[in-house]
Amino acid sequence: MTMQKTPLLMSRLLDRGAWIAPDEEVVTLTGGGTHRQTYADTRRRAGQLANGLLDLGIAFGDRVASFMWNGWRHLELYQAVPSIGAVLHTVNIRLGAGDLEYIINHAEDRIIFVDEDLLPILEPLAPAIPRVERFVVCGEPGAERWETSLPNAIDYEDFIGGYGDAIEWPEFDENAPLGLCYTSGTTGNPKGVMYTHRSTYLHTMAEAMTDTMGLSATDCACAVVPMFHAMGWGLPFAAAMLGAKQAMPHRFMAPEPLTGLIASEGVTVSAGVPTIWQGVRAHLEAEPERYDLSALDRLVCGGSAPPVSLIRWYWDVHRIEMIHAWGMTEMNPLGTVSRRIAKRSHLALDEDARFANVAKTGLLSPGLEMKIVDEEFRPVRQDGKSLGELLVRGPWVCSEYYHDPQPEKFRDGWLVTGDIAAIDAERYLVIADRSKDLVKSGGEWISSVDLENHIAGLEGVAQAAVVAQPHPKWDERPVALVVPAPGAELSEGGVLAHCAKQFAKWQIPDDVLFRDTLPLTATGKLDKKAVRAELEAEGYRLPDLRGEAGAPAPVPAFASTPAPARTA
Ligand code: ADP
C-alpha cells in the first residue's frame, strides 16, 4: 500500500467550503424577505447542532429526520448529522399521511426537525409515530413564536443555542450510512435508499465536473429540487464543498418569487423538474422586461424528460443552457447528463443537431456503467432503436432497499431501473418510458414521453400527458390529456394533426381530452398513475368502444407483447 486510505467522509468536503470561502453567503427566502448567513456561520451552527444531537444521545447510525423546505437550517442538518455519523432521513413533505406514517416508523426516526409552516401536516400523525422522541421546530424568523400540539417540541434556536460550536468530526468507515431517502416510484410501500459517505462523496465530485453540471466556486447555486428529494440532487453538498454561494427558495417556489430570487441573488445555476421551468417560462413570457437574468447560465432539468421546445426556448431567448439530467433516488441520484456541447466533435454541429442531443437522456456519468437488456437479460444492440430494460451499476447505485428486500430489482450486482431505453451509436442513453407507462399497442411499444413532449411543443399547450387505455384488439391505445395555456384555442383535430407530423398513424392517440390541470406526484412530475385512476373512476372508454353493449373484456396488458423483464 503506497497511498493513504483516508476515508471518503462528507465532513471533509463540507468543511472545505467553509474554510476557503467563510464569507460566502447562503441566502434563503422567508415570509418577510430573505435570511442571510455565511458559510462560517453555517459551520459554527452545524457544530452547535451536532453537539446538541450528541447530547441527546444520538448515536452512530441513528436516524434524524427533516421535514423541511430548502433553507439554511436544512443545510446545517446536511452538514451536522452525517458528520457525527448519524443518518439524515429527509422526509418528503408532499407524501400522504399513510406514506408518512409508514416511512417515519420504518426508518425509526428518533428526532424530527420540522419547519413551522409544516406543523399542521405532522401534528395529526403524532399518535401514529410514537417512537419519535423529540420534535425540533424551525420557526419563521421575525414571526411570533410557534405553537404546536406535537409532544416534546423545542425551538431550533433554543436547541442549538445551548451548545458550543467546537467539535472535531469523528473518523469512521467511508461505507457508513449518511442519508436516507424513500422513493415512491415503485409499487407498494415507499422504498428506502440509504446513501453512504462514499457514495455521496464520489457523486459530489462527479456532479461538479465541467462536463456534468460544471459547478465552480464562482457559481451561485439555487436548488429548486427539494432537499427532501434525492438530497436536492446533491447540489447543496456540491455547492458547500466548493464554497459557492447558495440561494434557497424555501416554500416560495411559485414562478414569481423563484424568478425574483434568481434575478436578485445573481443565481448562475439552478436545478428542478420540467414543470418548474415551464412555469418560469410562462411567467417570463408574460413579463419579458421585468427580470435581469443575465447572470443565469445553466438550468439543470431532470426527473422527467423536458420537451425540446423548452430547452430551445431558454437558449434562444435567454442564452441559458438547459442541462438535461437523468437519475433516480436509487442512485444518489445522478446517472446521465446531456449538454449542448458534450464532445469535441459537437463543436462542429449546427444548433439543431445540438438540441437533438440535449433532448436525449444523456451521456453516462464517469464512475457508472449501464447496459440495456432484453427479457432474458441479454444485452441488446446499441443502435438507438433497440429498446430494453436499463440496468446500472457503480459506487453511487444502491444495492438493496433499506430493510426491504426486492430481489427482482437487483440482479448480478446491477440495479434494474424500471426504465425502458436504448443506447445510440454516439453512446447516448435515450429513455423511451418507464416500463409501467409505455403504451403497448398491437405488440409494438409507443413512448408516452415522446408523444407528450411533441404535443407540449404545439402552440397553446401548457401541459400534456399520454396514458394507455385498455383495448380488446390492440391491448392498449394511447389517450392524450391536454391542459391549454390561458386563452388558447385548441381542438382535438389540431392536436392530432400536430401528432401526425411526427408519428406513424398507429402511434397517434385515439382520443384527446382537455383538462384544467393534471395531477402531479410528490416530486412534481406528471402523476400518470393518478391520471389512469381518474379515467378509470370516470368509467372512461376509448371512442371506438363506446356504446358497444357486451364489448369484449379488455385483454390484460402484456398478454401478447414482448414486454421486457418487469420490475415493480
Ligand atoms: P419518483 O419515482 O418518486 O419520481 P425518482 O426521482 O427516483 O422518484 O424517479 C426516477 C425516475 O424518473 C427514473 O427512473 C425515470 O423513469 C424518471 N426520470 C428521471 N429523469 C428523467 C429524464 N431526464 N428523462 C426521462 N425520465 C426521467
Overview of this protein structure:
This protein has 568 residues and is of the alpha/beta class. Among the domains are: 1-21 and 35-193, ANL, N-terminal domain (Rossmann fold), CATH 3.40.50; 439-567, 2-Layer Sandwich (GMP Synthetase, Chain A, domain 3), CATH 3.30.300. The chain is built from 15 helices and 26 strands. The strands form five sheets. A nine-stranded mixed sheet has the order 2-1-11-10-12-13-14-15-16, sandwiched between helices. Strands 7-6-5-3-4-8-9 form a seven-stranded mixed sheet, with helices on both faces. A hairpin with a 2-residue loop joins strand 19 (410-411) and strand 20 (414-423). Helix 2 crosses helix 3. The longest helix is centred in the N-terminal third of the chain and has 17 residues, at 39-55. The two termini are 43 Å apart. Residues 183-185, 230, 302-305, 324-329, 361, 417-419, 431, 434, 521, 523, 525 line the site of adenosine-5'-diphosphate.
**Total helical segments:** 15
> How does the major sheet shape up?
9 strands, mixed
Number of strands: 26
CATH homologous superfamily heading of one domain: ANL, N-terminal domain
**Strand order within the widest sheet?**
2-1-11-10-12-13-14-15-16
How much strand content do the residues show?
15-25%
Mean pLDDT equals 93
Question: End-to-end distance, in Å?
Answer: 43 Å
Please name the CATH architecture of one domain: 3-Layer(aba) Sandwich
Query: Uncertain segments of ≥5 residues (pLDDT<50)?
Result: 550-568
Estimated radius of gyration: 24 Å
- Shape field: globular
Provide the list of bound ligands, each named once.
Answer: adenosine-5'-diphosphate
CATH class of one domain: Alpha Beta
Quote the CATH topology of one domain. Answer: Rossmann fold
Helix content: 25-40%
Structural class: alpha/beta
